[in-house]
Amino acid sequence: MVFGPFDPSGSDGLPADAVTCARLGCHALSAVTALTVQDTASIEEIHPVSPDLLDDQSRCLLEDMPVQAIKVGGLYTAETASVAAQVAADYSQVPLVLHLGQRAPLPADAADEDEADDLLAATLELVLPQTDLLVIEHLRLAQWHADGDIDIGDAPSPMHALVAAGAEWVLVLGSPQRPGHYANVLLGPNGQTHTWPWQAPPDRNGDAGGLAATAITAMLARGLEMPEAVRQGLAHAEASVAASFLPGMGRRIPNRIQPQ
């Protein structure tokens, strides 16, 4: 099951995630968190669904079909974050992948900034402790740390702080290792670490973190253990981005049905 927005361009969100899941042998269920007005270049408007509607649609599906994994991405209000957290708590036996990286318009005023702060706080306080795997881009994590949105306390790094805050595993994408070299870094229980090389996507490519999170969720649904699910999910995402195409005047779209 995927919690996320409906992207009418098909470049991201639920339509794209459904294609990724199908390509990897899974059937995707959708819990729509928002409807967007957008094209391949940018998001113009976001219309979040009500918390009650999100709760009703997700539980209706969960009571009908067995679900092997859940991905949460594209939460837009603190109230919908609370719904996702409660659903995750009620289905705690199901692996949960949380992607923090959904594109959205920049806050237009102080009220928008306050809402964004409330959403991040609710996500970290309510959803993160239910999370089996958190997926986040290094640049976003570094910015939150610099802005004081994440308090690392005595932890050696922000990703260690996220594990201490409740995530069982944390995957940081594009983490700098040394000048000119980057890696995808997976940190897990007892400090165990796995790394894979990270390649910069082609020009005009969008955020590939959501694609990677969905592919990893599909691998977990198929029964793979976390490090192997991450390895295979990252490989699929990298191949899809490498084969990306340019259908419009905006960003390139990963080729989610590329041959394995």
Q: How helical, in percent, are the residues?
A: 25-40%
Give the N-to-C terminal Cα separation. Answer: 23 Å
- Largest pleated sheet: 9 strands, mixed
Helix/strand-derived category reads: alpha/beta
Strand order, main sheet: write it out. 3-2-1-4-5-6-7-8-9
Task: Return residue spans where pLDDT drops below 50 for at least 5 consecutive residues.
Answer: none
Shape: globular
Q: How large is the count of helical segments? A: 8
In terms of DSSP E residues, the strand content is 15-25%
Order of helices and strands: EHEEHEHEHEHHEEEHH
Provide an overview of this structure.
By secondary structure, this protein is α/β, with parallel strands linked by helices. It is 39% helix and 21% strand. The chain is built from eight helices and nine strands. The protein has helices at 13-23, 51-62, 78-90, 110-127, 138-147, 158-164, 209-221, 226-242, and strands at 2-6, 30-38, 43-48, 70-72, 96-100, 133-137, 169-178, 181-187, 193-197. The chain has a nine-stranded mixed sheet, with helices on both faces. A hairpin with a 4-residue loop joins strand 2 and strand 3. Helix 1 crosses helix 7, helix 3 (78-90) packs parallel to helix 4 (110-127) and helix 7 crosses helix 8. It starts with a strand and ends in an 18-residue tail after the last helix. The mean pLDDT is 92.
